[in-house]
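thought: fold this chain, then report.
action: predict
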Amino acid sequence: MQPAELTPTNDVSRAAGTWPLNLPDGGERVVEPVPDLHRMLAIPQVAECLGVTERFVRRIITERRITFHRIGRHIRFSVADVEAYIAASRVEAKRRG
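observation:
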């Protein structure tokens, strides 16, 4: 049995954000893409998103200041976890007067 192949059939399906899945038996099923909240990011992607170095990201992992997932030997971050880290790092401005 061959693996299912994920290919866009036309620009309409690509614009709609869905991809048809060509099944081995010749059938076809439309597959919704994974929402961004469930997408996993690697250390270089998180560093780019935060505008910092990879070394800084590794440091906050070691200090457990950011939530991460260990998948085998790989460290990954959900988009929601990175957004939560950004929100938790916010410092409000002091008002004078």
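thought: worth noting. The two ends are 73 Å apart (CA to CA).
final: tokens above.
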